[in-house]
Design brief:
By secondary structure, the protein is of the alpha/beta class. The chain has a single domain, classed as Aldolase class I (TIM Barrel, Alpha-Beta Barrel). The chain is built from 18 helices and twelve strands. The strands form three sheets. It has an eight-stranded parallel sheet. Helix 3 runs antiparallel to helix 18, helix 7 runs parallel beside helix 18 and helix 15 crosses helix 16. The N and C termini lie far apart (52 Å).
């Protein structure tokens, strides 16, 4: 073996030291995957806040199974195909989306970061996808419309016991330029959120010995909380208590197909139903003439051992036909998951936790980064599969479970 004395020019490249990432924007900007944003988020927000986003119902079997279902997917790549240019755009409900992803509705979003719903809606606008504001949001329909007038805004509705209050809320969303109404039907009562109970989560957060200790560990989060607008529900009167207590007191547990017909009569645009979990219910809902439905177990946050959306999806697509747009949510943490859902028949995928991890990790910059990650992963997956557009993904030609 021939040896030589190393020269500095040979060694110099090995001693490159990256500049420290001192800002949250630089840290989230370097995150390669949603899981990395999740780790950053866990360090930046109080335990109760992170647990609210990260957790599911009961012992979290529904949540874990929803994610595990994507690990059963096997792609079948087509090689020797020109994938130098890939088109991820889709048409959905009369709208052009840059990719088959929609920002799902999430409650209490300003609890995750003071930038809240406005930051996520702005990120969605920049990426060319819709943002869905929740009934339980911490920004009003009017304020969101003023903040991001160019965004494609959808509104998610929970039916309340007070029908007139529901009517007023629908009217406010319509007057504020929201384009699609999404009725969530899987929450007649609150799910059993054991993490929230154990962490003592209330909205707004209460100052207890535990939260005072938490302040010392997350001073920036608490500073933002006390120096910005009060954390409250923008579309209903203040409620002082737990999430479950609020849901059980306000939501309408007797909602049925007649209630769905009433909602449709109040809206002059597309109506979609979120929370369908069986083929039989998909047929019933589609027969009412809604524009779309979402196969969803509420992110595993309602019923323990609920059906797994990805497993239910193909049967629902076959049952309702092409006249009803079928979407899906739950368990999506990667752009490859989006590709898998589309291959199994979904027109688009809703993501919630994925962007909330980014929001908690770095505010507006984190929300941007989470959607950029998903888009980049979707493009790379399509290139490696050999699909040059989203239509080429459909029909299961590139996938089996």
């Amino acid at each position: 073996m021939k040896r030589q004395i190393p020269r500095w020019s040979d060694l110099k490249p090995m001693f490159g030291v990256a500049a420290p990432r001192l800002t949250s924007a630089s840290r989230v900007g370097a995150a390669p995957a949603i899981e990395d944003l999740r780790e950053l988020a866990q360090r930046r927000v109080p335990r109760a806040v992170f647990g609210y986003v990260d957790g599911g119902a009961g012992y979290e079997e529904s949540l874990n199974r929803s994610r595990a279902a994507y690990r059963t997917v096997e792609f079948h790549p087509r090689v020797l195909t020109d994938v130098s240019a890939v088109d991820t755009s889709v048409q959905l409900l009369g709208e052009q989306l840059s990719m088959p992803i929609i920002c799902a509705p999430t409650g209490f979003t300003r609890m995750m970061h003071a930038d809240g719903e406005v930051a996520v809606a702005a990120a969605a606008e920049r990426l060319g996808i819709p943002y869905t504001l929740s009934t339980m949001g911490t920004t009003s329909p009017e304020d969101l419309a003023r903040a991001v007038p160019g965004a494609s805004r959808w509104f998610q509705l929970y039916l309340w016991r007070d029908r007139e209050a529901s009517r007023e809320l629908i009217s406010r969303a319509r007057s504020s330029g929201f384009r699609v109404l999404m009725l969530t039907v899987d929450t007649p009562v609150a799910g059993e959120r054991l993490r929230d109970v154990r962490n003592g989560l209330t909205v707004p957060p209460k100052l207890t010995l535990r939260t005072l200790v938490d302040m010392a560990r997350h001073p920036r989060w608490w500073f933002d909380l006390v120096t910005t607008e009060p954390l409250e529900f923008a579309s209903l009167s203040n409620f002082d208590g737990t999430v479950a207590e609020m849901v059980d007191e306000i939501f309408f547990p007797a909602a049925d197909l007649d209630a769905l017909d009433w909602v449709k009569s109040q809206w002059d645009g597309p109506v979609i139903v979120k929370g369908v979990q069986t083929v039989e219910d998909a047929r019933r809902v589609a027969a009412t003439g809604v524009d779309g439905l979402i196969v969803s177990n509420h992110g595993g946050r309602q019923l323990e051992n609920a059906p797994t959306p990805l497993e239910v999806l193909p049967g629902v697509v076959e049952a309702v036909g092409s006249d009803t747009a079928v979407l899906i949510d739950g368990g999506v943490m990667n752009g490859a998951h989006v590709a898998a859902a589309v291959a199994l028949g979904a027109r688009a995928v809703l993501v919630g936790r994925a962007y909330l991890y980014g929001l908690m990790a770095g505010g507006a910059a984190g929300a941007d980064r989470s959607l950029e990650i998903l888009h980049g992963q979707l493009i790379r997956t399509m290139q490696l599969i050999g699909a040059t557009d989203v239509a080429a993904l459909s029909g299961r030609a590139h996938l089996r479970r």
